Amino acid sequence: MSDPGTVPIVEGGRQMSTRALMVTSAAVTGAAGIALLFAPGEVYRLAAGAPASPATEGALQLWAAALLGLGAVDWVGRGLILGGIYGRALVLGNLAHWTVGALVMLRALFDRPGVPGPWIVTAVYGVLAFLFAGLLRRHPVSAAAALLVIPLVTACSAGQAAPAAPSPRYAFYLHGRIVEEQGRRPIDPAFGAYEYDGILDSLRRAGFTVLSEQRAPGIAIDTFVTRVTGQVDSLLRAGVPPEAISVIGFSRGGAIAILASSRLNNPALTFVFMAACGPWAFERPDIRVTGRILSLYETSDTLGVSCAPLFERRGAGSVVREVPIALGLGHGTFYQPRNEWLAPAIAWARGDAP
Quick one: fold of 169-349? Predict the structure, then answer.
């Protein structure tokens, strides 16, 4: 199973991973930013063949600040799923920077055609603009599927029977509120550390292509429900069977999963609600969860309780199961990839009994 951060950009039969592209962009912007910040006059003299005025040096240092900022964002985003609807703000920001920069440098070429500096900068900006444009137009699922054709063609051309490629399974993991408020590895004084990355790694080791986005602080729940349902719809439109898609949510992430289940209204999709149910859902008659749904809750938890009242008004064709867990850890049961909840969640996402 490929790492989501290495989904390929396919251009004319050649491949470049999104991770490599983001690292390259971060390296180029970082190096250029450092050079312009600490030696703006020298860089200008090399590029333009003339000394820089104090105002020009100041402008170059402001440009350096922007480049360093973009480089930092690209470096942090190197492991994200990018392409199509995924990470669109990050991809669009890079595309705008590299495209506008390339056009500006083209004008510099006409003004000073004999100076080599603008040619080099224009080439770099043009290549990166081209790659980010390709990334924006390509959905990561369809790009990954394109890779599966390569071993099939190779085997058939050699007169061999092509091995049957296992159908990929996609798991959306929606984290709890504490990750929004405190960062990627928050620590609760009562429940301990929330091992967000450890949970994602556990799902990947189970064979899933994991789709998970760290939500921004204060994001409206309905905004993220719309995002998740759009991502699921995108997979379905790309030809992924609904039985291969699971949405797993804990606490506030579980609330998002509940609302997504009601909105998508597809009994073939799989959902796992973990410590997600409570009066907020029971008192909303407009919520009608639909799908293959597993509820997991800790019996000592006061924040997330049994989903039985919610399941009473489930959508047509839905299959529901519930598994209580009794570790005595409250809400913190789901903070770490413990086998007591992870095993039934993985089994359910694979289409098996919990």
Answer: Rossmann fold (3.40.50)
